[in-house]
Amino acid sequence: MAFKTDIEIAREAKKKPIMEIGQKLGIPSEHLLPYGHDKAKVSQEFIKSLAGKPDGKLVLVTAINPTPAGEGKTTTTVGLGDGLNRIGKKAVICIREASLGPNFGMKGGAAGGGMAQVVPMEEMNLHFTGDFHAITSAHNLLSAMIDNHIYWGNELNIDARRVVWRRVMDMNDRALRDIVVNLGGVSNGFPRQTGFDITVASEVMAILCLSNDLEDLQKRLGDIVVAYTREKKPIYCRDIKADGAMTVLLKDAMQPNLVQTLENNPAFVHGGPFANIAHGCNSVIATKTALKLGEYVVTEAGFGADLGAEKFFDIKCRKAGLKPSAAVIVATVRAMKMNGGVAKADLGAENVEAVKKGCPNLGRHIANVKSFGVPVVVAINHFYSDTDAEVAAVKAYVAEQGAEAILCKHWANGSAGIEDLAHAVVKLAESGSSNFAPLYPDEMPLFQKVETIAKRIYHADEVLADKSIRDQLKAWEAAGYGNLPICMAKTQYSFTTDPNLRGAPTGHSVPVREVRLSAGAGFIVVICGEIMTMPGLPKVPSAEVIRLNDAGQVEGLF
Asked: Per-residue pLDDT averaged across 231-242, rounded?
């Protein structure tokens, strides 16, 4: 069976001028700052004018743990937004921007797929409107100013061994994880050990995604702890006097990007933190703006619900005062079979028993999301190889968990294939049954928060952390950071820290390798297991097949 590729479908899109998409939401053309004909930024002035308007209903799309079989969370987010518009609801989609790292590595883009895509797909997966470049530049300006301050006399008495601000770039490059800078003699500064993270792991990315406006952005940038003195006194970004210039670099990046789906429905694509190493949600400013402009806002949180949804609830919703009305958990029959022990090469053959064996992974995600007080519906993202018996097995299992599973064919049929899910989401959202509350209170001690996530969400028996890590958390509590939420950095492939352990394991331990304070973003990053904040390229990266064809079009990007 021959299918068109996502990029072929995207090229055939009948896009409308972005001003028309803005008109659908009531955004005057003078408040849309166009980047070409099919994308635009929304002005801060217009966003501020919406303050008194009521909010629409917020719907989160999350998923089971990702497998090589594919789940289609972004595709379902886009499809559901189109589906809600199809059944007469004014719906807006809010997703994250794509990082160049995975695009040229192995994961691919982040614009949906099939007949449920956001366009322009190629541009969204490349430089888009330059937001990531601005974030990278702002982050590295601060890095340069720290080393420059030390070079010119070090008035703040920074201990060069205690500079905690690393550098970033938006590319997978394992060679830069651990490096020495300032080599080459007196004129180049004082040598010290540091490294690079990927831009999506930058605290500047998190700050941009959690800030309400430019004033809030500059305050948060100023709050970044960049280093310590020999007496372990913190040095802030504002002490280096970098916050003003960083805000200038981020001025345009702070404005949400408006694009459209294949069905010409509005989509905000803004911010892009990874959910395995950062908080994994699109920007607060985009989500809040969409809530003022639409009856329904459909947003996603990265990877499985153990990471993305937990951080959406415990970090984004807590900090931004958001109250989700419903959640959709995306699963596929293929992924259930893989969780049930079937190899990727054998996924095409019917195997109802493997589906049943793999369903506990989905069951745990359902229970976890319900534990936040948010009602759940399951979307079975359909593949042509799925059989009726396999789909029935998933539906029966989900019914036993006290939820409903709905077969969705948006990849093949667009909004027409997801109407049933759209109606189910409206029913849940309008039932008023959401009683959202975060997993833990602000005042809970930091290590206890880590244990709460590990035990209640991952079903671990214990958290393993050296005394130095526990002492660091206590020191941050003493310094006034005890009320911050936790941002777990962990493999996305498993509830455990072992990426090969699928299903719904219990009785495992969560080893903590490192903790980092993100004082500006307002959370503590807890790095578990072997997860890296600078990914590496695979043996055969996607970059090897990405090229321009004879017509000047991009090939191999998705």
From this structure: 97
Q: How far apart are CA 102 and CA 126, in angstroms?
A: 11
pLDDT band for position 400 (50/70/90)?
very high
Give yes or no for a contact between 558 and 108, defined as CB atoms under 8 angstroms apart.
yes
Q: What is the pTM of this model?
A: 0.95
Catalytic residue chosen out of the listed positions 62, 67, 74, 75: 75
165 is catalytic: no
Spot the catalytic one: 128, 303, 447, 523: 303
The domain ranges of the chain are 6-129+253-430, 131-250, 446-528
Cα(272)–Cα(96) distance, integer angstroms: 5
Question: Is 220 an annotated catalytic residue?
Answer: no
DSSP letters, 27-66, are --GGGEEESSSS-EEEPHHHHHHTTTSPP-EEEEEEES--
Q: Considering only the top CATH level, what class is 446-528? A: alpha beta
| Selected catalytic residue, list 13, 110, 267, 275 | 275
Q: Which of the residues 39, 73, 89, 409 is marked catalytic? A: 73
| CATH of the domain spanning 6-129+253-430 | 3.40.50.300
Q: Check residue 176 and report its DSSP letter.
A: G
* Cβ–Cβ under 8 Å, residues 182 and 188: yes
Q: What is the pLDDT of residues 162-216, one digit of tens each?
A: 999 999 999 999 999 999 999 999 999 999 999 999 999 999 999 999 999 999 9
Kindly state the tokens that stand for 181: 């800078």
Pick among 3.10.150.10, 1.25.40.10, 3.30.1510.10, 3.40.50.2000: CATH of 131-250: 3.30.1510.10
